[in-house]
Amino acid sequence: MVPAIEVEGGWETVLDGPSRAALERSALPEFLHAQRWFGGKARQIGAVRVIDWGRLPDVPTAFATVLEVAYADGKPEQYFVPLTVAEIQGEATVARLTGPTGEAVLCDGLADDAVCAALLGTVGDGREFPTREGVIRGTATAAFAGLRGDPTRPLAVERGPATSSNSLVFYGQKLLLKAFRRLQPGVNPDYEVGRFLTERAGFDRTPRVAGLLEYVRPGHEPAALGLLQEVVPSQGDGWDHALAELKDYCERPGEEPVGDYLQAAATLGRRTAQMHLALASEPHDPAFAPEPLTVGDANALRDDVLRQGRRALALLGQALDRLPADVAPTAQRLLDEGPETLDRLATATVVVPAAAKTRVHGDYHLGQLLWTGGDYVILDFEGEPTRPLAERRAKFSPVRDVAGMLRSYHYAAYAGLFDRTRDRPDEFARLEPRARAWQRQVSAAFLGEYRAAAGSAGFLPQDSREFAALLYLFVLGKAFFELAYELNNRPDWVRIPLQGILSLWSRDR
After folding, report:
1. 213-223 pLDDT, tens per residue?
2. Rounded distance between C-alpha atoms, residue 427 and residue 421, angstroms
3. Chain centre to alpha carbon of residue 397
4. Which CATH superfamily is domain 238-508 in?
5. Which of 42, 57, 123, 273 is most buried by its number of CB atoms within 10 A?
6. Parallel, antiparallel, or unpaired for β 62-71 and 4-6?
7. pTM
8. Contact 79, 181 (CB under 8 A)
9. β-sheet bridge partners, residue 80
């Protein structure tokens, strides 16, 4: 039930005095816990405080607020939550308000068109407005005016699906505001890399950046609140396109080849190489200049794989009795073979390939692509949102991105198989070899074209054995991470990383 809050003055005073304390005590914790973008669902909230806020320009009863969430254990987190007094209800509702002027609803400001328009204007005009402790500042890039069009014509506002840690607002299918709910002070990699690729490196297979909204306090690094970028027309994302192609392949009789999707996979391999070449193209900017891959980097990678592997095996052992009956034997095999295999990896000599580390995408999979009918556009350079900002801006071997996409093809093959056999489980055994064949062929097409397009780039090992060894470590580490994730979230999907890990180990012997 939505809490009721009494406001002593007009609605513009809702964040003053007793009404703010009531919001912090009951309404805001309940609201946060119900939001898809809130990252603390698994933690016990100790307290929520409005640590800063300011009125939005042109919307008298709308507020840009910064909330600090303290937990029973661990570090607190800060969230950007615009609030507005409006007639909007549903999931956006924070509290019902009563006061001298009647009744109203306090809701998430991003559900209100006027608030969204005010944020767009703040970026487009390059203006700032004060908060109690600092300012909220908008910055427009050179691309903004052309993407926005006639500034006197309002743009229709639409919201994206609530499926990520960010909130999405579309303006007239021209501009997209990606609102970063959890605040992390420092340079935002999506803004930094997006501008570098399109403005400096000339890479045109990613949306142009139009602007930035950020929160600035004296004595603190600015924190990005939102990224404004170009909307690219498409036929959907790369994940849905892959599943549709796999479905078509599985419905064909006999042993027909994969067909047109091999060309799509090869195109993605080429675009991925071009992205990596662009990210490695600036030797004089310390934020982007390639650096040699060192013994320390190689050891850190090996140690991370070992850490991920031991954690995944521990979780697998604890969950063995709860796994589906047809998965348990494969899981037991991994538990039997895993410790010895990890021990061999721990004692093996680390080969340091002649290669470099650069800025990379960092969270590369089919869901980070748009399919534009014959080609791809690459999205979301913010990295894994749960990782610290410094790690998301760090340099890695570009092979990390290659491994992420190969694992994504594996996932697509089985996701399509699960969907097709949900009501016909007896078909699974018959169709699984076809799904695996699809995965092998598209992975080979992607990888082959990637290496051909990258050529003799200094960031890749030119020795085939060194390249294969580096790819093996990144793929294995990713599969272990996936295994731990699925054990905690989707036990029915545990078979995907299980099969991937065992397949890698069988080829390694």
Report:
1. 999 999 999 99
2. 6
3. 19
4. Aminoglycoside phosphotransferase (APH), C-terminal lobe (3.90.1200.10)
5. 123
6. unpaired
7. 0.92
8. yes
9. 66
